[in-house]
Amino acid sequence: MTTTSGEFAAAGVPGSARRRGKVLEHAIFQAALDELVGSGYATLSMEAVAARAQTGKAAIYRRWGSKEALVLEALRELLPEAGPAPDTGDLRADLLELVMRMRAAMLSLPGRAGRVIMSELDHERGLPFAGLMREKVIEPGASRLLELLGRGVARGEVRPEAVNHMVVDVAPAMMLYRFKMLGPPTEQDAADLVDQILLPLVRR
Amino acid sequence: MTTTSGEFAAAGVPGSARRRGKVLEHAIFQAALDELVGSGYATLSMEAVAARAQTGKAAIYRRWGSKEALVLEALRELLPEAGPAPDTGDLRADLLELVMRMRAAMLSLPGRAGRVIMSELDHERGLPFAGLMREKVIEPGASRLLELLGRGVARGEVRPEAVNHMVVDVAPAMMLYRFKMLGPPTEQDAADLVDQILLPLVRR
Fold this sequence. Notes:
The structure is a homodimer.
Chain A: H1 7-10, H2 21-39, H3 46-52, H4 57-63, H5 67-78, H6 91-107, H7 109-120, H8 123-154, H9 165-182, H10 187-202
Helix pairs in contact in A: 2-3, 2-5, 2-7, 3-4, 6-7, 6-8, 6-10, 7-8, 8-9, 9-10
């Protein structure tokens, strides 16, 4: 680790590694979400993010004018992509795969950060974050589920009336509720959700 | 409204009505939950509660040593009793009655206060409140639901395997999720939850 000319020297942080562009940006996003999960949104400070990312506050403010802008972009970049809908030909295997992906996303750093922020902020201040979670997590998950249920209908495994927007809320609602009440969902919880709830609910 | 000798004069609040014992206590509980819903737990102050209840801070501290103690007792006293399980002889009517009660409780002042505090506090600081919500709301609701499902099994309307603890989480999980995502649940939302989710899930 050497102090160098240019960006990091200008930011005035001795000992920071020479990092540029995407690498530095990623370290800042990671630091922002780590801080958010550790201390909550209200007490999240740009200073703490800078310290954790081993850069200067100025380097952060140059790119993001507010912590809202920083956290929104960090979530947008770090939340995993939904990927294509599972298509194993078997309804239970497809549902289990989707619920396991949902669990993994919920336990990931950006997933935990999203949960913290959505539970901390009231409706109005939470709107930009809710919009992002909807766009990046909820809607892709719902559309994958509708797609695999549709294939189940075609195979004669799923009731056509079960392919609706209330049914697709059941898995995320149950995962979040049980997370809140009982702590992080286990793989067994995911399997139970499929076997006790989703299959009986949608099967013909 | 007259300033009187004794408790209220001692508290130093001019113009407070002469209220004693249970009446004053109820006004303080109500004020505490109003403040909580309005401004959140972190910024809730005993001073603001006293001002809203038109009493003195000393009168409050004499009874409750901390805001945690005050809010816990306010919730314990003001949360509605669960009442006996619905027993109309008809599964759909029983489920609808239970879900409508759940909705009413969620929209009531203590229900909104419970929601605010459970979403604001992290796991550790939330524990005493989670314990209270479990004891006063969740467990009574679950036991009423298990009871009415049991009668449904006896009538041949309900699958015996559906009478389990994961199934009883579905209604509160869905109500809370949709509240967060779409705002306060309507009567139509309650009916849809029964018709689209609960009945297909438990019916034989």
